[in-house]
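Changelog note: in this version the structure field was regenerated for every chain. One regenerated record is shown below for reference.
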Amino acid sequence: MISEKSKKIIENYIMAYNSFDIERMVKLLHKEIMFRNFTNGEMNTETRGTLLL
């Protein structure tokens, strides 16, 4: 079961995403987050962290 705190973070992230508010989205992420993209079962892209330029 998901906690209320986690649910609120997810809802805020979706609202920021839908508003194209990248800065607000990033503020909700852990500083050591890892994103991976898989295509046809193979990882083809990976990025770590929340550094914005």
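Spot check on this record: The longest strand covers residues 42-48. The chain has a mean pLDDT of 91.
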